[in-house]
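Q: My collaborator sent me two sequences in one message, no labels, and asked for predicted structures for both. Can we handle them in order? The first one she listed is below.
A: Yes, handling them in the order given. First sequence, followed by its C-alpha cells:
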Amino acid sequence: MSRVSKPHEIVERALELSTADGCVVIADEQSSANLRWAGNALTTNGVTRGRTLTVIATVDGAQGTASGVVSRSAVTADDLEPLVRAAEAAARGAGPAEDAQPLVAGVPVSPDFTDAPAETDSDVFAEFAPALGDAFARARSGGRELYGFANHELTTTYLGTSTGLRLRHDQPTGTLELNAKSPDRTRSSWAGRSTRDFKDVDPAELDAELAQRLRWAEHRIELPAGRYETLLPPTAVADLLIYQLWSSAARDAAEGRTVFSKPGGGTRIGEQLSGLPLTLRSDPNAPGLESAPFVIAHASGDGASVFDNGLPLTPTDWVRDGRLEHLTTTRHTAGLTGLPVAPAIDNLVLEGGGERSLEEMVAATTGRGLLLTCMWYIREVDPATLLLTGLTRDGVYLVEDGEVVGEVNNFRFNESPVDLLSRATEAGRTEKTLPREWGDWFTRSAMPALRIPDFNMSSVSPGV
C-alpha cells in the first residue's frame, strides 16, 4: 500500500474504493514558510508540510440524493478505506440534500494532474529577507521598532470525481504585515501587502510609509464622534467589500433577508448602487490575483455546494458601472431564484476609473477630513441594511487643506458598505491590497481608496 502515496494516486484509489452512487475526492497538499520579527530583529522562521483529504459521497434514494462529507488530515494509503466508508455512512444516514444536483460531468483533465505537488520553502524569502534586514537598520537609526510576519503558502488541490473530472490547481498565497511603533509604544502604524512570491514587496517602501505616519502622530489631536469626510485606504475598502461579497447570496436576498432584497419580493439586481462608475468584479485569471478556475467546495453552505465541485468559473461583474449585476449562486440556488449561475470566486477587484493615488487624494482634500490606516473587529449589526460596526486601528490622521496635521483618537464606526458606495464622491487608483481584518481568509483583492463625505464615526474608542 505504500506505493499509493502520491496525491493523484490517493484520489484515484479513493474513487476506486467508493461504492456510493457518486463520489468527489479533494486532496489538498499544503506547504508553508514564514518569518516573524519583533523589535527590529528576526525571532522565528519555519517550514511546514501537510495533506488534507476530503471525500464526498452521494447516495440516491426514493426521496432524493443525500451527501456525506468527511475530511481528515495527514491521510496515508492505509487510511483511505475507513475514510471513504465514513463518508458513505454519513450520506446513508442523512436525509436528502436540499442542494442536490447531478455531479459535474465531462472529461476535462488537467495536463499536470499526475505531477508532484508544488511546494514552497524558505527560498521564497531569498531577496525579501536581506531587504528586511536593511529596513531593521533604518528603523533603528530612525528611532522606531518594526514588528510583523511574512507568510507564504502553496496549496496544490487535486479534484477527482466519479463522473470523470481530474482537475488540479496550484495556489500561492503570500502575506506581509508590518507594524512600526515608537519606543514608548504611544504611536503605532500598520502596513500590509498581498503577494504571490514576495518579489513585488519592498520592505524599504513600507518602512518609509510607516515612518511618515509615526511622524504625523507626534502631534496629537482629540476629536469627538461625528460624521467626517474620510479617506478610506484600499485595505479598508477591501475589508468592507469582502464582507459585502460574503453577504450577497442570491437565495438570502430573494427570501427577503439581506440588503440586496427588493421590497415586496425579489432582488435588487438591476438597481443603481452608486453614482460613480464603480465596477466590482471577480476573475480567476486576474493578473497577480489568480485563483482557482473551477469550484472547490469542501462543504455545502449558503454560497457553495459540494455538488458543484469542478464547475468552471468565469469572470463575473457583481456591480458594473454602479449597477448591481449579479448575486452569488450555486446551481441549486440559481434554480430557486431564476438567476444565472454565479459561484463565488476567490478574488475581488473594485475599479472606479480614478487615477489618483491615496497621497494625491489627501493633497486634493479641501477643508477638513480624516485619513484612516485600517479597520479591525468588524461585525454585522443589521443584515437588512448590511450595517457593520468596527474600530479604526494604528492611526487616524487629520487632514486640513491638503496636508496631514496630526493624529487623532480612534473611533468606532457604523456604516454599510452598500450605502458607502452610494455616497462615495471619488475613487482613486486601483491597486493590490491586503485586508487587515479578513487577511487570514481572503487575500486576493485590488481596491482604490474611496472618499466618503460623511463617514459615521459613532463613538470615540480608546487605545492605539
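Q: And the one she listed second?
A: Here it is, processed independently of the first:
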Amino acid sequence: MHKKWWPLAAVSLGNVLLLVDVTIVVSALPRMADGLGASFSALQWVMDGYALAMAALLMAAGSAADRFGRRRLYLAGLVLFALASLACGLAPGAGTLISARAAQGVGAAAMLATNTPLLMAAYRGRDRGIAFGIWGGTSGAATAIGPVLGGLLTEYLNWRAIFLVNLPLTAVAGYLTVRHLRESHGDRGARIDVPGALAFTLSASALTYGLMRGGERGWAENGTLTWLTVAAVALVVFVLVERRMPQPLLDLRLLRRPSFAALMAAALLLQAAAFPYLTFVGLWVQNVLGLTPVQAGLAALPMALMSLLVGVLGGRALQRLAPQLPLGIGLLLIGAGALLDSALLGADAGWATMIPGLAVSGVGVGAAMPVLAPAALGAAPPQRAGMASGAVNTFRQLGFALGIAALGTLFTHALHGLTPGAPLPAVRAAYATGLTRLTLTSGLVAVAAGLMVLMVVRGTGSTGPAAAGGRARSRLRGRPRHRQAPSPTAHVRANGHTDLP
C-alpha cells in the first residue's frame, strides 16, 4: 500500500469496527441469552445501549474534538472502545454487559465524530474523492456485515469473542493513527453544550425505554406513561436550551430548511428500516429453524454483499448525482426488499425465503449510505457543515436504537400467546407473524422516507466532499471575509467537517 493511504486505513479501520459492533451481536443473541440468563428486554438493551450512547454523545464529541484535537479524541475513543470491549467479553451478567456496551458507545461516538474531519485534513483534490469513496463504501457495508462476522466468531470460538476480537484491531488502528495521522483543531475556545447533551440523552433514553416497556406491559401502564412523559419533557428542555445557547449542539434554525429537515428524517428512518429487523431474523433462524450462529450470520449475507458491491464499486459515481436520487431510490429499494420479505414469509418459510428481499435491500443500502452525510453537509450553510454532518450521524444511530425498541414491541406482541413448551407449529406461526409485521412496517417506513426525499430534498451537482467544499467557497466568494468566512485554519464542528482552503 502506498504510504499516502495509511491515514485512510487508520480511520477506516476504526470506522468499520464501530459500525460492525452495531450489529455483530445479532447472531450471538441466543447463546448470549443462554450463557447469561438474559431476558428478551435485556437483549434489546445490549443492542440499544451501544447505539443510544453513540447517538447521544456524537455532537458533543465533535465539539470536544474541535477544542482538544481530533486525533487526540480519536485515540481516546479507540482506547475506551477497546477497554469496554474487554469488559463486554468478560461480563459475568447481563447488567454488566449492558453497561459495558454503553461505554463502548461512548468510545464509538468519539471515533465517529472525528474520523471524517481527520480524512478531510489528510487528503486534498482527487485523493480526497478516492478516500471518501472507499470510506463511504465500507461504511455502508459494515453494519450489514456484522451478523456474518458475529456468527462465525460465536460458533467457532464463543459469543464473547465478538467483543474480544476488537482488542488487536483497535491496537492496529491506534498504531496507524499515531504513525500516520496528524493533529488538527477547530475553535479551541468553543464551549461544549453540556446541558443540551444531557437533555438529549435523557429524552432519547426515556423514549427508548418507554417503547420497550409499552411493548411488554401495555401502553396505558403507569410506568410506560411516565417514561414517555419524561422523554417529551426532556425534548422540550433540549429545544429551549438549544435556542438560548450561543454555541448549541444543534442549531435548530437548520431544521427550517426543508432539505436539511428531510435529510435528518431520512437518516433516522433509513437506519430504523434497514437494520433493526435483522436482530429478530437472527432469533428466528436460530430459535425456530435451528440454524447455527454461522448459518444465522450467512442468512444476512445477501444484504451485506450487495451493499458492499454497490457502495465500493459505485460510491464515487453515486456522489456525482443530485443527492435526492441515490438516497431516495436507495430508500425505495430498502422498502421494496422488506416488503418482498413480508410477502414471502409464512409459517413454513425457511431462511432462504428472505434472500431476494435482503439482496434488494442491500442494493438500496449501498446506494443510500455513502451519499447521506455529504448530502447533509451540502444542505447546510458552510459555517454549519460539520454540525450538520454530526447531526446526520446522530439521527442515524438514534434511528437504529428506536427501531430496535419499536419493532421489539411488535415482535413481543406476536409472541405473547405462546406458553412454555408450546408445539413447534404454533411457535413457527407466531414467529412468522411477528417477522411479517416487522418487515411490513420496515418496508412501509422506508418507502415513505424515499418518497419524502425525492419530493423535498433539492441539490445541485455532486454530493462528495470536494463538491461540498466548492459550494462552500462559492457561497463565500464576494462576501466580506471578516464577517462571513472562517480563517484559513478554521473549521466547522463535529463529524464531516470541511477545512476551507
